[in-house]
Amino acid sequence: MFSNVIGSTLLLAKFHKFFSGEIVYRDSNKKMHPPLTIHRHPMCAEIIEAFQKCHMDHPIGKFFNECAEWKIKLDKCFRAEKALKRKANFEESRRLRERLREYRKETAQMKDGMDVAQA
User: Fold this and answer.
1) What is the CB-side half-sphere exposure of residue 37 using CA atoms within 13 A?
2) Which of 9, 22, 110, 113 has its CA at 20 to 30 Å from residue 42's CA atom?
């Protein structure tokens, strides 16, 4: 009897989270998308707004793939945005590595110059 009460309470809690919109699933592999904040994803601002509008227009339909086409576009936009960020980060790391290499070369030359002067 006691386990049935706990089990039904947990089921109701999960049900409430699902229908209150706290849990948003991806279409195919049931994973949540990242937070939909426009300042973090400026490239995808229009698609985010359209996706959120679709969810507002279809409060029940969003659980039955009513907004699936917007979700697919959103995922593609996030992937493209991530690829651009990855490329920019790679270029930045290349510049930093080159600066570090030059700095090490200069310090090695200065150290060699000091060793010669002391000898």
Assistant:
1) 3
2) 22
